[in-house]
Specification:
The protein has two helices and 26 strands. By secondary structure, the chain is mainly beta. β6 (108-114) and β7 form a beta hairpin.
């Protein structure tokens, strides 16, 4: 093949490449021109000044895992993002508790106590996989639950938890493993005792879940007395209502392992009300107000990606569940004073 023929072939190849490249660029420009606009963002300081919801953003993208906030008046509207990233978040009007996990060859777990600007105030090492987080109403105490062994509440007795109460300065106030436990009128000292899901009534009184021998109880405890006493069985991840009269919780009942039903227990009348949410919920619910509870449910997108949504349902057993915030997890309701 002579030189002229080779040049002709090369020119043809270059032309084909240029045409293909041009077509690709045009297609990309067309897709960009017709793509959905970037979601609007709210101003963080404006949202924080009014009643708002703090949560973990689970939307796929660069903000995955970031702590976000939306006004309670428009929970499905534009969200504002903070600089914090968490596995689980809880907040009051003054501080936040952020459970953080860094996975790799050596996993690192810690709780970050955040200030009103969502900047880290104190780091507290955690001994296991983050699970639950709560704060006292005045924000002076935090409670964290981690899995020291196992990663699910599906089978009582096949996991080990550690629940700590910590002050804002990061100093440990209580390890529930060191408390006396009385269940069904008897002292429980078995080695398989586990505690999780603290919810504070004040700076001394709290409620939590205790488990031993395949049973779970709702317990009421005192930090000063270092003692917990059972109130009833089959209660997990309690959450005290704003008016302090009811406990929202998940119960196992006669469901298969790893399945729970949401219910509310009235501390005055000792009656239980099953909620209208019939799907299994593995979460420590949050109260939106005295009439409504919030909780997270996992969801798989059309593209096969895993996310979650925050749902709401009436606390009296009526109504139907509704999505409050899509692509969100770990809600905390904050009403600035």
């Amino acid at each position: 093949m002579n030189t002229r023929a080779r040049l002709a072939i090369l020119a043809g190849v270059v032309a084909v490449v240029l045409v293909a490249t041009g077509a690709y660029v045009l297609r990309v420009q067309h897709r960009q021109a017709n793509a959905a606009p970037v979601a609007a963002r709210a101003d963080l300081s404006t949202v924080l000044a009014a009643p708002h919801l703090v949560f973990r953003n689970t939307a796929i993208g660069s903000e995955l895992g970031k702590v976000a906030v939306v006004p309670l008046s428009a929970p499905s509207g534009p969200r504002a993002f903070t600089g914090a990233s968490c596995e689980r978040i809880y907040a009051t009007g003054s501080h936040e508790i952020c459970l953080y996990a860094r996975r790799g060859l050596s996993n690192t777990y810690k709780a970050q106590l955040l200030g009103p600007d969502f900047q880290t105030v104190t780091d507290v090492p955690l001994s296991g996989l983050p699970s639950r987080a709560r704060m006292s109403r005045d924000g002076s105490l935090t409670a964290t639950t981690t899995f020291v062994f196992g990663d699910s509440y599906a089978n009582v007795g096949q996991f080990s938890t550690r629940t700590l109460v910590t002050r804002l300065d990061g100093k440990q106030t209580a390890d529930l493993e060191q408390f006396q436990l009385y269940a069904d009128g008897k002292r429980v000292t078995a080695a398989d005792r586990n505690f999780w899901g603290v919810t504070f009534a004040d700076d001394d009184k709290f409620y939590a879940t205790a488990a031993s021998g395949g049973k779970t109880w709702l317990v009421v405890g005192s930090l000063s007395a270092k003692r917990m006493t059972s109130l009833r069985r089959d209660v997990e991840c309690p959450s005290l209502s704003p008016d302090r009269t009811r406990i929202a919780f998940k119960k196992h009942g006669d469901l298969p392992p790893g399945q729970w039903r949401l219910a509310v227990y009235d501390l005055r009348t000792h009656t239980e009300t099953l909620l209208a949410e019939t799907r299994s919920v593995d979460d420590q619910v949050e109260w939106l107000d005295d009439d409504t509870v919030l909780y997270g449910l996992p969801r798989t997108t059309d593209a096969g990606a895993a996310t979650s949504d925050i749902w709401a349902v009436p606390a009296d057993g009526s109504g139907t569940p509704r999505t409050l915030v899509a692509d969100a997890w770990s809600p905390a309701v904050v009403r600035p004073s």
